[in-house]
Design a protein that fits this description.
β1 (about 90-95) and β2 form a beta hairpin. By secondary structure, the chain is mainly alpha-helical. A two-stranded antiparallel ribbon has the order 1-2. It has helices at about 10-15, 25-45, 45-60, 65-85, 85-90, 110-140; strands spanning about 90-95, 100. It has one domain (about 10-150). About 55% of the residues lie in helices and about 5% in strands. The protein contains 6 helices and 2 strands; from the N terminus they run αααααββα.
């Protein structure tokens, strides 16, 4: 049986709160949400708090301060990390015979420099919301005691401001 992966935001949330069309296949968005949670959000939350939230999402018991954290802080950061990461899966398809680029009669794929511009824009917004999330956690350690905990094999919560890149055009 496949492992159930709790997602902190839904595919529908991504579509309703971004420029991603409603007709985009959920199977392209769902793995990106999971990856972004693991790559970016777990670094901010630390493994203990991250796993606690995921367990509550899967069990359907997310409430109170945890629900506020997810809805008002994590969701914003995760949305922009997803928009940052989903560009490549939407543009390229991995098939039996090759990796191919999607085309359509009414659209034209963007150039690499345009993709880089879009990624930089979303990365900057994602970093802003991630910093906002970390600041909230730092100011509310009494509400989230697991934030500073870490097991030997887990990820420590990032205690410093995320590094940002500067796009000079």
């Amino acid at each position: 049986m496949a492992e159930q992966r709790g997602l902190l935001i839904s595919e529908n949330f991504v579509k309703l709160n971004s420029e991603i069309d409603a007709n985009v296949d959920m199977n392209l968005i769902r793995p990106t949400i999971w990856y972004c949670q693991k790559e970016y959000i777990e670094k901010s939350l630390g493994t203990e708090l991250y796993n606690d939230l995921i367990a509550k999402v899967i069990a359907g018991t997310l409430a109170g301060n945890d629900l506020n954290l997810v809805n008002n802080y994590i969701a914003d950061a995760l949305l922009f990390w997803v928009k940052f990461e989903v560009q490549v899966p939407l543009l390229y398809k991995f098939r039996n015979k090759s990796t191919s680029k999607n085309t359509d009669t009414n659209s034209q794929p963007i150039q690499l420099n345009e993709l880089k511009f879009i990624e930089d824009k979303y990365a900057n917004k994602a970093q802003y919301f991630t910093h906002r999330l970390e600041k909230y956690l730092c100011n509310n350690t009494d509400l989230f005691p697991l934030w500073l905990d870490c097991s030997d094999d887990g990820v420590n919560a990032r205690e410093t401001k995320p590094q940002t890149s500067l796009y000079l055009g």
